[in-house]
Amino acid sequence: MNLEAFILGSGGMMPLPNRHLTSVLLRREGELFLFDGGEGTQVSLKRLNLRWKKISVIFVSHTHADHVTGIPGLLMLSSQVDRDDPLYIIGPPRIAEYIETSRRVLDMYINYEIVVKEITEPGIVYQGDGFHVRAFNLRHTKPCLGYVLEEDRRPGIFHPEKADALGVPRGPLWSRLQSGETVTAADGREVRPEDVLGETRSGRKFSFVTDSLAFPEIADEVHGSDFFVCEGMFERALEESAREKKHMTAEQAAYLAKAAEVKKMALIHYSPRYTDYDLKQLLKEAQNIFPGTILTRDRMVYPIEYID
Questions:
Q1: What is the pLDDT of residues 75-104, one digit of tens each?
Q2: Where is the catalytic site (predicted)?
Q3: Can you tell me whether residue 302 is helix, strand or coil?
Q4: Known binder of ligand: residue 62?
Q5: 126, β-bridge pairs
Q6: Which among 55, 56, 124, 202 is least surrounded, fewest beta carbons within 10 Å?
Q7: Is 247 annotated as a binding residue?
Q8: 66 in catalytic set
Q9: Helix (H, G, I), strand (E, B) or coil at 124
Q10: What is the mean pLDDT of the chain?
Q11: How much is the pTM?
C-alpha cells in the first residue's frame, strides 16, 4: 500500500514566486489528506496533477491566514467535478466560522456535503480503514494543533512451511490466515493465524507540526515517525525572535526529531527572509543535531516506506 507526502507549499507568512504557503498532502492508496492549505495550494495540486476531488479530509493547524487562505478556492474548485463523498474539515475552534463566512461572503456554489469538526480536546479526530489521525495541542499565539496519521499494526510475515506442516492446503485458506482468520485444516484441526505468522509489524507514521514553540511533549507525540514535517522558521541567531513570535528554529526542531527518534525530518514554513540559498544555513544547523533532516521544497514528493 503506497503512502506518499507531497509538499504543496513550504513557506511561511507570505508567498514568494517559487514558494507557496504551507500545505502538505498525504496520499494513501489513492485517498488524499490535506494538512493546512496556504495560498498557492491549488497551483501545486494542478502542477502535480493530483486529483483534488479525492481529498477526504482537510486538517487545519490554526486559523492564521498563511495556513488557510488557499482553502476557499479549493472548496469552489471541488464543485467543478462530481463528488459523492463529503469533505471533512477538521481544525481548532473558529475553523467552522471561517468556512461558513467564506461560503457566505463569496457566495460559493457547493454541490457536495462539507462537514466541519472543531477540536477542543486532543485525541483521535479521524479514523479510516487501517489508520487513525490524532491531534495534539501546540503552543502558538492562538489555538494550534499538530497531527499524527498512524497506521494500525500489520500481520506478521506468513510462513508457508508452517501452514504445510499443519495440513493447510495452499490456496484461499492461506489468504484467510494472512488476513487474521482462523481456518480448518484437512484433518479437521483449527489453525490460528498466530500458528503460521510471525510477530506483528508496525505500520507507518506521519507527523505534522507547524507554528509552535518547541517543547518536550512534541517529541512524545511524534515519537517514531517515519516522516516528521516540522517548522524550522528561523536560524539559531534569531532564537529570541522565534520565541517572541512563538515559533521555533530549525535547530530546535532537530532536537525534537532526535528526542523522538524519527526516521526522517523535513523542515517547512520558512521565514520569507531566507532565499533558497540561505536555507542551507537552516539545514546545516539542523543536520548538526539530527543528520536525517531534509529541506522541503514546493512540489517535492517523498515516499514513506515500510521499515521492513
A1: 988 777 778 889 999 999 999 999 999 999
A2: 66
A3: strand
A4: yes
A5: 133
A6: 124
A7: no
A8: yes
A9: strand
A10: 93
A11: 0.91
